[in-house]
Design goal:
Chain lengths: ~160, ~160
DNA sequence: TTGATTGCAAAGCATTTGCATGCTA
DNA sequence: TAGCATGCAAATGCTTTGCAATCAA
């Protein structure tokens, strides 16, 4: 009886269309998982999303979250991102411009950025090798400005009081 | 009694220095694993390397390969690369220019490439966000020229004989 | 001698799968 | 009603860890 509620957002319509096209079924769990996913702007891991969903409906199983995220990805609503921490993260993909990530190895902050030149150069490199790009992934790892600032502070303080 | 043999290559010297610096010990297993690793130019997974090593000394355990690859990485001789197939691959890192990868999703071929402009642009983007780059990873996924050719062939053949 | 190293088996993780039950279309 | 979906538990695949025996320095 929780399955109800008319589709509101474009994302929900995309989801329903995908469900129909694939001969799948609409369920309250899938609705909830999509809803919670859309309410965040982070790069949620499966576990993260599972925890959030569990708060609103403790009966939902983690397996269902795994399976639903896969459907959302197929529907073009989510995009898988791997940051190298061993698990898969998901970010919004619908009407979200492609972008890359800078990851701070100290605080874990993720900065999204986009560069048309970067994209163009990649196309150029691909063309040079007669390679047809399906997708690409650029990940820059390092230290964000805050962490760099913090370190400078620390250095200054410790040299002031030896 | 297999530990012997003087260091020959620069890599072996780097390895020995790292061993000493860290207070580790030189063993025949580590020597062998390094040796086999240096003899390949592929992007070996742990399993791959383990199989090769086992051919030359069946008594070496997979755990030792895991542990040794970690040491080689710390020593700067190897670099971890993740292609998204779930396991970690390793490539040579000593005096090897940084490069990126194009991965064919059909045949699995990996094309290494390098673009100074691409590197420069990344530095530029990082500077814009006051981000200090430690490392970066660019992975382009798609179809290589051979697989594209093959598909064209197939299309031509099947349309010729309907 | 002494502490690092090894190989095995067991443990850890993230993710997937089998299956009986439940629910959508 | 038919068949997809669910949640649990078990299985998987890669990697790490505990441990007793072994070995380098």
């Amino acid at each position: 009886m929780t399955t109800a509620e008319e589709p509101r957002t474009e994302e929900q319509e995309v989801f329903l269309k995908h469900i129909q096209r694939k001969g799948l079924k609409r369920t309250s769990q899938r609705d909830l998982i999509l809803d919670v996913f859309l309410r965040t702007e982070d790069h949620l891991s499966n576990e993260d999303l599972y925890q959030l969903v569990k708060k609103e409906d403790p009966t939902v199983g983690q397996t269902t979250v795994y399976r639903t995220l896969k459907i959302l990805t197929e529907a073009g609503l989510a995009r898988e991102v791997r940051f190298g921490d061993g698990r898969t993260h998901y970010e919004h993909n619908y009407k979200h411009q492609h972008h890359d990530h800078m990851i701070c190895s100290e605080c874990g902050k993720i900065i999204e950025f986009f560069s048309a030149e970067l994209e163009a150069l990649q196309d150029e490199m691909a063309a040079k090798h007669e390679f047809e790009i399906t997708q690409h992934l650029l990940r820059i790892i390092g230290r964000c400005s805050e962490c760099r600032q913090a370190e400078k502070q620390n250095a200054a303080n410790s040299s002031a009081s030896p």
